[in-house]
Q: What sequence folds into this?
């Protein structure tokens, strides 16, 4: 089950397209893009579709992931302080979780995340005080 879900997740990420939602160019972005270029997404997608059609556990997961309860859970998580803290932490490494979440929201057909202008600064200050470098 874990391998089939990992394969399905890889196919899902490939559907998000290139490049990854990172900020300015850095070594992490280059490494991720190099890895993404090595993955034969057409073959991964074909195998993922086979799993989605023939594997009962993957079919149940796909059924859940395309349902309303999953959309509500995603929206609830994105509204949580934990998501905001994770996004602020990821921002320190030049990874934009809001951009990634909005791409996923678009695929799921749920509202995009809207931020107040002062909020990212509040998170950044909290993280700076909590996790000094």
A:
């Amino acid at each position: 089950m874990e391998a089939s879900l990992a394969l399905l997740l890889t196919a899902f990420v490939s559907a998000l397209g290139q490049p990854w939602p990172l900020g300015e160019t850095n070594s992490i972005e280059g490494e991720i893009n190099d890895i993404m270029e090595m993955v034969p997404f057409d073959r991964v997608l074909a195998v993922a579709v086979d799993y989605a059609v023939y594997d009962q556990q993957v079919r149940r997961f796909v059924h859940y992931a395309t349902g309303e309860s999953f959309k509500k859970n995603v929206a609830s998580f994105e509204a949580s302080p934990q998501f905001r803290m994770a996004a602020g932490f990821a921002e320190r490494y030049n990874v934009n979780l809001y951009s990634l979440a909005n791409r996923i929201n678009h695929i799921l057909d749920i509202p995009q995340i809207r931020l107040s202008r002062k909020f990212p600064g509040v998170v950044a200050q909290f993280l700076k005080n909590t996790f000094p470098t």
Remarks:
- The chain has eight helices and no strands.
- The chain has two domains: 1-66, 68-133.
